[in-house]
Amino acid sequence: MEQEIEIEFKVLLPKDKFNQILNTLNFPAKPFTQINYYFETPDLQLKKHHAALRIRKKNSNYIVTLKEPHSQGILETHDRISETAFNNAINHNHLVAPNCFKQLDKMNIKIDEITYIGSLKTERYEYTDSHLIYVLDKSFYNQKIDYELEIEAPSRSIGLDKFNELIARFNIKELPPITKIERFFNSL
Q: Measured on CA atoms in the order 64, 62, 138, 22, is the torsion positive or negative?
C-alpha cells in the first residue's frame, strides 16, 4: 500500500508577506499549478474522523489521497488513477481507489456515499533545502484567494525549528493552521 507520514507546518499569510517571502527566499520565478478535487459524505463522516479525501491533478497525473491524523503528523494513503477514472469520479461520483478504500473501511465510512463536492486551484512555488521542502501557495476557491507558507520536514523538531525561525524572521502573526479542505468547507 502506498502510504507516507507527512510532517508539515503551515500558516496563512497576508498578500504582502507572501510576496516578501517569495522575493527573499530561493523560490522559483514561476509557480506550477495543481487542483484539488474534494470528496465527502452527505453527513460529513470524513470530517468527523478529522480525515480528508481528494484527487490532486498535477500536470497530467491524478492521485487520490486520503489524509488521516497520525501521532507523528498526517498519514497519507495514495492511489494513482487514470484520467478516465478521474472523470468518472468527478462527473459520476464513481471513485475507485483501493488503498484509500481500505483505510476508509477501517473508519466504517461507506464508499458508495462519497461524493464530489468541489475544487481548489493552487499556484505553488516550491524548493528544497537541507531535506526541508519550502512551499508558498496561492489558492483560489469559491471566489476567495488566500496565501500560505508551508514547510515539510523529515522530523517534527527540525521542521518546527525552521518554521519558528521563518515566523520570527518575517514577523508573521502565527494563527492556528487551517487546512485547505477546511478553508474550502468554510467558504461554502
A: positive
* CATH for the 3-186 domain, from 3.30.565.10, 3.30.2320.30, 3.90.25.10, 2.40.320.10: 2.40.320.10
Decide if 188 contacts 118 (C-beta within 8 A). Answer: yes
Three-state helix/strand/coil letters over 74-101: EEEEEEEECHHHHHHHHHHCCCCCHHHH
Distance of CA 103 to the CA centre of its chain: 18
- What does the alpha-carbon distance between residue 104 and residue 155 come to, in Å, rounded to a whole number? 26
Q: For residue range 86-122, what is the model confidence (pLDDT) as tens digits?
A: 999 999 999 999 999 999 999 999 999 999 999 999 9
Report yes or no: 125 and 136 within 8 Å, Cβ to Cβ.
yes
Total-model pTM: 0.94
Task: Return the SS3 of 22.
Answer: helix
